Amino acid sequence: QSVLTQPPSVSGAPGQRVTISCTGINSNLGAGYDVHWYQQLPRTAPKLLIYGDTNRPSGVPDRFSGSKSGTSASLAITGLQAEDEADYYCQSYDNSLSAYVFGTGTTVTVL
Amino acid sequence: EVQLVESGGGLVQPGGSLRLSCAVSGFRFSDHYMDWVRQTPGKGLEWVGRIRHKVGSYITEYAPSVKGRFTISRDDSKSSLYLQMNSLNTEDTAVYYCVRAVLHRNWNFDLWGRGTLVTVSS
Q1: Is A66 near chain B, with CB under 8 Å?
Q2: Residue B105: what pLDDT?
């Protein structure tokens, strides 16, 4: 079950900046657990995009950035490109469920 | 080249069983915690469970939705991960991914296989 809430979709023109929110509760993001972000291109497996709230794995463009405050986190994509069309998921840990939890997912469309 | 290759998916009737395998290459499998994550069209991504490495005593953890029905195991000599699924129901229909877990303050999933589809239907 998804206990982290994301908007179903966001869109933007090439070159624009878009943000995706991830809202949790006191037992996950609010408890201080890190948020991580994954990008899932069409017909592929998810790929780690941001870890530990703000860190990019090697090879991830610096157009992608993450932030977190309290029970919310955000992923920003600046200079939006056609190749960024994908689904994006946030992920954290929930201590009331004793389980790793994912967001509901957001589809990014480049207009 | 790093590879995680799942196999064993297919069609199974409700109440049935299935065993998934994941063959790993390109990194030292025995050094890592390994997880299973599944994805359904309706519920998105869902963590299934984890097995620690030998130093972690091969301890397993499971999501509440599968605890008591699913069992994760590993064979470090074969660099392979397994998921034994029993008492399957239609809600277990999903693509199952083998993933590597890494620790950076908290755990995240840095490597994913391509997944194998499990369909539970009569």
Answers
A1: no
A2: 87
Nearest CB to A51 within list B35, B104, B112: B104
Any chain A CB within 8 A of the CB of B28? no
Question: For tokens 């955000």, what's the residue?
Answer: A74
pLDDT per position as a tens digit, B6-21:
999 999 999 999 999 9
Report DSSP letters for A10-51, one per residue. EEE-TT--EEEEEE--TTTGGGT---EEEEE-TTS--EEEEB
DSSP string, B26-79: SS-GGGSEEEEEEEETTTEEEEEEEE--TTTTT-EEE-TTTTTTEEEEEEGGGT
Nearest by CB to residue B107, choosing from A2, A44, A100, is A100
Query: Is there a contact between B43 and A99 if contact means CB atoms under 8 Å apart?
Result: no
Other Cβ atoms within 10 Å of B64 Cβ, number? 10
Task: Give the pLDDT confidence of A32-72 residue by residue, as tens digits.
Answer: 999 999 999 999 999 999 999 999 999 999 999 999 999 99
Closest CB to B108 among A44, A51, A103: A51
pLDDT digit string, tens, across residues A79-91? 999 999 999 999 9
